[in-house]
Amino acid sequence: MTGTDELAASTSDADVEVERAVRAAMQDVARFANSPEFRSVLSEMWAVAPERRAGFVVDVLLDPEELAARGFSSPPA
Fold first, then answer.
1. Could you tell me the pLDDT band of residue 14, with boundaries at 50, 70 and 90?
2. Does this model's pTM top 0.70?
3. By the 8 A CB rule, do 69 and 59 touch?
4. In this structure, are residues 7 and 19 in contact, taking their beta carbons and an 8 Å threshold?
5. To 5 degrees, how large is the angle CA 8–CA 10–CA 14?
6. Which of 17, 20, 21, 46 sits 20 to 30 Å CA-CA off 27?
7. How far, in Å, CA of 10 to CA of 63, rounded?
8. Cα separation of 34 and 43, whole Å?
9. pLDDT tens-digit map of 22-36
10. d(C-alpha 60, C-alpha 55), whole Å
11. Residues 43, 56: contact at Cβ < 8 Å?
């Protein structure tokens, strides 16, 4: 019996659907976090002096125009 079979045998159909949805969402987050655009912006943030990172968050990460200028787009909500 595989892990998925064991899960199905011990839980309700609704629980299995929730499990699948959570796994799919986690995969989406992992793909996003590993995208070149995200990694580039993250590297840029870490290159900023620690005392200036809050400003970077406000000025870049929370500004859609600044993100777009870096080729970055947020995933759909």
1. confident
2. no
3. no
4. yes
5. 60
6. 46
7. 46
8. 12
9. 999 999 889 988 999
10. 8
11. no
